[in-house]
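Pilot study result, target chain (281 residues):
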Amino acid sequence: MMKIAWITDTAAQLDEAFIQQHDVYVLPLSVVFPDGVYRESIDLTQEQFYDKLRAAKVSPKTSQPAIGEMVSLYEKLQSEGYDLAIALHLSSGLSGTFESAQAAAKMTDFNVYPIDSKIGSFPMVKMIETGTELFSEGKEVEEVVATINEMATKSHLSFIPSSLNQLHKSGRVSGTQAFLSNVLNIKLVITFEDGKTVMKEKVRSNKRAKNSVVSALRTAMAAGTVSEVAVNHCNNEADAEIWKNELVQEFPELKVQVVPLSVCVGVHAGEGTTGLSWVAY
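Predicted structure:
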């Protein structure tokens, strides 16, 4: 049996037990505060990040893994006897991590198959889970890669920022828009389309925003293509658990879990953000 490594980044927010069980190597995305660069899950926990974000006078920036770090990892895996690696990364529409993985792969003799997830979070987890299952069934790497690429086109992630304050700080909306949204209780629904985040809807009240996201889930559920969904959040597990319970009541056959979003999402969307993600099969 071939010795296969999986490579991803912290956008996936993989469970530590899964990482250890399936030879997964996680490259950290970084957050750049005025006082230094912090690697997600290494230099900062989620709680520490949001403490710093609340206190920050200048909005932090995000940074992708260095290409040299990728080359070093590929060479290390080759020296340890791995036959190949599949590198699944955050959408190329948001980060240059995937392109760096492609470039790094050309700089070594190691067989690396970079894949653009076209998304982040829970769908990335499902892609890696599916890939490991296919390899255990004896599938060839080309079939595994093709399956994951197909999953990338059927993945969904929408989220609702708690307010537009952080989006304003990070330069995504104007100060006037942020002020009016707070006064009028306007909520944005942001979703992934073709690997990029777009504003899907602008509605009054969080209830309407949630219903807009759940409406897309209802459509997918009616087609019989979704069996599992994640309620995502930026340091807002309490509201995520409430949403999970609401979904379980409406869809008793649906497996629902609560999954934190990468702190790099928190840099832009802000603390309190919630959302839903799934893969349609």
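One observation from the pilot: Residues 206-222 form the longest helix (17 residues). A full batch analysis is planned for the follow-on phase.
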